[in-house]
Amino acid sequence: MSLQLDDLSVDIAGRRIVSGINLTVGDHQFAGLVGPNGSGKSTILKAVYRVHRPSAGRVLLDGTDLLSLGHKDTARRIAVVTQESASEFDFTVREMVMIGRTPHKRSFDRDTGTDHDIVDHAIERAGCQQLASRRFNTLSGGEKQLVLIARALAQQVDHLILDEPTNHLDIHNQVEILEIISGLGVTVLAALHDLSLAALFCHAIHVLRAGQIVAAGLPEDVLTPDTIFQAYGADVLVIEHPDTGTPHLIPRRIQPASGEPHTDGTPPGPSAPPSATA
Amino acid sequence: MPLSVVLLACLVFLLATMTAGVAIGSVPLSPSQVWHVVVAGLAGHAPNTVAGIIVWQIRLPRVLLAAVVGASLTTAGSVVQVLVRNALADPFLLGVSSGASVGATAVLLFGAFASLGQWAISIGSVLGALAAMAAVFLVSRTGSSLSPTQLILCGVVMSALFESVTSFLIFRGNPQATQAVLFWLLGSFGLASWNQLPIPAAALAAAMVYLLAQGRTLNALAMGSEPAASLGVDVHQLRRNLFVVTSLMAGVAVAVSGIIGFVGLVVPHIVRLMVGSDHRRVLPAGVLFGASFMVLGDLLARTIVAPQEMPIGVITAFIGAPTLIVLIRRRPYLYGATQ
């Protein structure tokens, strides 16, 4: 149950978007992919779930080249949860989750008792039993994400790809969703925006900039002010999370160019010491 | 409600509307007279009585053709809405009807294909529809994929182009003949006959077999291209197939009945309101309900201003427009309103 990107490059419309990506997500590991907007996170993920074809390099699933698998075979191994998608169609939550059975079925196959059991179990694991008979379009953003996770679970996969699954969600929903995902016991590769949250849940973090990995490793080794500045051009303070000891990032204001006095009267600078200690 | 119950109810409704469609007219008949003739006709010897001739030679082929066209337009509409992922799409969005009108107008005004006799209009409109379909397919294709937005835009643009060709033909044509063009453009089953039935019926049957096999993948495609790909659907292949299947169904329907608007747009919505959005339910229920809707529409078209006949496009728009507005107001969250 491992996922490996081997020297992966992807071109879109003749332009190289990501190049020379090497990363391995081990069995039951939760790997985070972070980087600024447009750095190629989604492109890498789309190469894994076969929307984009690699221009060079390979995606290996337990050592097997993904392109040697059929579309359905891939979908029985890898499921995807992206940002909540609006639907033009009025499916119930149960119907949405049943759609996760698609790769396991052939034309004219009916929904069997086993399928219904799998759907029930998926809904339960994603914690959305109370939503089962509601209409998907009437749910809140956080509830929709739970349903999409249930749909991914109904695919009965051992690999999960997440593309910013907690975008636009409130802080409770963000933590709840990542908590559920990390408790599933599957191999996860997730593009995440919130670096502190990524540090809290990921076993390893890969930092992208302009289509290349610039740092990779344990969250505490990777999420340093230097690396963040290099990747994002952003000035941050890093403190230790009091519960977990994982890095927690504190953004700093960009200095006003006109030299207006700071509210505390001291001349601000990037070398100012962290005001909090763990 | 179990699907079998829904389908049984739809079937009973269809048989009732078809019976009414055959029974009602300038010479009123009773349902038992109608079924007596139908049973005898199916056995191969339709009675040579007045009732027998009215039922077997005039009204029954017309009602059957209306049913087949209604079912085809509803099915094509349901599928096009998934194909372009837009609830307001209809089977004519992708240029089929405007292409067909060019062909039909050329036949009606300039006598193209005159050697084909009664088939000239059908052949002309099918050729027009196929040309439009090929044109939209080619211009909206990037690489191997047909993206929903590109399909809609190219469909709309090509439709406008074909419509201006039709306008040009009308402008250059004989003013007396434009009356016939106008009547054709609004749709009618007035020229229905038994020999018009086999081709649309066979197209509908073949398309239904293919589409019912795709029930699950249509549901996945309704989630969007990328979610569908992640569910193991070969999205490019599926979109190409759906485009061809729906264009052919709509093209054949237009060829035998003209351009009957609103059925392919509104009836899929009514059907989804009844059975939900699962295409394994929507498609079979849509065939039966779409057929009933068109049979009723045609019944109104030929009785409401009898002995004259109203173009059926007028009736379907009068029923369809208010229905759609009611639907939009009942489920505002489906059409972009915030909760």
Summarize the structure in words.
The complex is a heterodimer of chains A (278) and B (339). By secondary structure, chain A is α/β, with parallel strands linked by helices. Chain A is 29% helix and 25% strand. Chain A has helices at 41-48, 71-77, 93-99, 113-125, 141-154, 171-182, 195-201, 219-222, 225-232; strands at 3-12, 15-25, 30-34, 56-61, 64-65, 78-81, 159-163, 187-191, 204-209, 212-217, 236-240, 247-251. In chain A, the strands form three sheets. A six-stranded mixed sheet of chain A has the order 6-7-8-3-9-10, sandwiched between helices. In chain A, strands 2-1-4-5 form a four-stranded antiparallel sheet, covered by helices on one side. A two-stranded antiparallel sheet of chain A has the order 11-12. In chain A, helix 5 packs parallel to helix 6. The radius of gyration of chain A is 21 Å and the shape is globular. Residues 265-278 of chain A have low confidence and may be disordered. By secondary structure, chain B is mostly helical. Chain B has a single domain (69-335), classed as ABC transporter involved in vitamin B12 uptake, BtuC. Chain B is built from 14 helices and two strands; from the N terminus they run αααααββααααααααα. The radius of gyration of chain B is 20 Å and the shape is globular. The two termini of chain B are 27 Å apart. The A-B interface holds A 46, 49-51, 70-76, 78-80, 82, 85, 87-92, 95, 99-103, 105, 107-109, 137-138, 155, 161 and B 81-82, 85-87, 212-214, 216-217, 219-220, 222-227, 229-234, 272, 276-278, 331, 333-334, 339.
